[in-house]
Amino acid sequence: MAANSRQAGSPVNAYPVVIGANHKSASLTLRDALFMADAAVPAFLESLRAAGLSQAMVISTCDRTEVVTAECAVDEVAEIITSRFAETAGVSASDLSGQLYLLEGEEALEHLFAVATSLDSLVLGEPQVLGQVKASHRLGRDAGMMGQALEHIMQAAFAVAKRVRFETTIGESAVSIAAAAVQVAHEVHGDLGRCRALMIGAGEISELVAAKLKEAKLGGMTIADTVNSRAEAMARRFECHVASLDALAAALPDADIVLGAIGRGSYLVTAEMVEGALKRRRYRPVFLIDAAMPGDIDPAVEKLDGVFLYDLNDLERIALEGRERRQAAAAKARAIVREEVAAFGRGKAAEAAVPALSALRRRFEEVRAEVLADHPRASAEEVTRRLVNRLLHAPSEALRDIAAESAEAGPETATPQGPQDETAAVEGLLERLFDLDIAPGDGRDGGDPEEKSE
Q1: What is the mean pLDDT of the chain?
Q2: pTM for the predicted model, two decimal places
Q3: Nearest to 74 by CA among 101, 104, 52, 46
Q4: CATH number, residue 249
Q5: Domains held by the chain: number
Q6: Phi-psi region for residue 18, left (φ > 0), alpha (ψ -120 to 50) or beta?
Q7: What is the pLDDT of residue 433?
Q8: How far apart, in Å, are the Cα atoms of 33 and each of 22, 50, 56, 63, 96?
Q9: CA 296 → CA 104, 159, 173, 200, 201, distances in Å?
Q10: Same domain, yes or no, for 148 and 11?
């Protein structure tokens, strides 16, 4: 079926389907090309709707861009979304090969729960990501793309994130790293009201540190990123300035605090750049934080007088949140995610039984009405006896038919799927459904004679 031939209202999935690229699967260049500011998401969702998708949302951050949907035709949906991703990035679909992931079923649900709980972030426990996921959900809802199935999935993700936040200390780890950065900044510079910060990268760790610096009454801030719209969005939130990456050398002399959080694979801040900045600063000290993987700041800068270079592990040690404690919290959070994935599956299985139970209830009500209509003057004892007989009539006939087929087949032809096995399976199901204890020889009289009078 062609991608544009899907019909609106196609069957939906009980589990999510996730297609996207993140810091583990794709290059920074591709992630930057796929990034969508909030203003661009409605048009992207509309293009998915035009292609036939009825439920979808987009999560787009510096670490990832992925589409979450609840459509059933997974291969077809993957083709549609990959095509739209290629258009967004300005590349061919073949260029995305090997850099996109396609997840479905429990694997997709566990991934989504991990994203919402920040277990899939560069900085474990980073609290900003849940807000980003909620903003993505809101954009999907505003676009009319949050159908019942996808809404149910996302509410489950939010519930898991809340549970992880309250039952583990994983969120404290990320916040304490940012707090440690501010603590060191105070030790290096004293009053931060006279200081300026240069944030290279507009991702989660930058937002964390920026928020803590603002709380500490930082004098000013400038943000630079590989994607200008991302830098501008963060600058609006923190009411600060934007610089281009090409202008880093010019921005460094005014920066008392420098955070590198891009991870492009080459040093954005070199020893030569810092040495030149120090001269222009008259060797006033500089506090640099390299939070990127791979690093953004040349380690050689640490040899320069007046330079204080820290990475995330250094800040972790200062915050007394050692790796073991952090990993223990993450392990507990992952266990919660697995529990909730299993619980989600049990809930869906229970929902699957609802139609059968509803049909059974309707049938019983129909039979009750028929008995009352046929015997309007009968006593309660007679009505209830006739009701029981009539309710048992169809299952009694079915059981006799199964037993007869078993007898005709004979023991020598019995198979694991044969009539004899079916008889035992039905009896076992009846025992479980109605709390019975079926003993050999029960009911040899063929049942209540009144049944035949019905």
Answers
A1: 84
A2: 0.68
A3: 104
A4: 3.40.50.720
A5: 3
A6: beta
A7: 66
A8: 12, 22, 20, 12, 11
A9: 35, 36, 22, 9, 10
A10: yes
What is the predicted pLDDT for the residue at 5? 41
Residue type at 43? A
Q: Does 333 map to a domain?
A: no
62 is catalytic: yes
Residues 182, 190 contacting (CB under 8 angstroms): no
What range does the domain containing 136 cover?
3-168
User: Tell me, what DSSP letter sits at residue 264?
Assistant: -
Q: Check if the beta carbon of residue 51 is closer than 8 Å to that of residue 41.
A: no
- What three-state secondary structure class fits 378? coil
Task: Give the number of other Cβ atoms within 10 Å of residue 73's Cβ.
Answer: 17
Q: Is 196 helix (H, G, I), strand (E, B) or coil?
A: strand
**DSSP-based three-state secondary structure for 70:** strand
Neighbours of 343 (CB within 10 A): 13
pLDDT grade for 15, boundaries at 50, 70 and 90: confident
Tell me if 177 is assigned to some domain: no
Residue 15 shares a structural domain with residue 128? yes
For residues 450 and 405, which has the higher predicted lDDT (pLDDT)? 405
Task: Pinpoint the alpha helices (H) of 281-418.
Answer: 312-318, 323-374, 380-409
Q: Name which residue leads in pLDDT, 287 or 404.
A: 287
Percent of the chain with pLDDT over 70: 83
Q: Which of 62, 72, 195, 240 is catalytic?
A: 62
Cβ pair 172, 91 in contact under 8 A: no
DSSP H or E stretch at residue 289: strand 286-290
Residue 378: inside a domain:
yes
Calpha distance 292→311 (Å, rounded): 8
Residue 273 shares a structural domain with residue 361 = no
**What are the tens digits of pLDDT across the range 277-309?**
999 999 999 999 999 888 999 999 999 999 999
Using 50, 70 and 90 to split pLDDT, how confident is the model at 1?
very low
289 lies in the same domain as 372: no
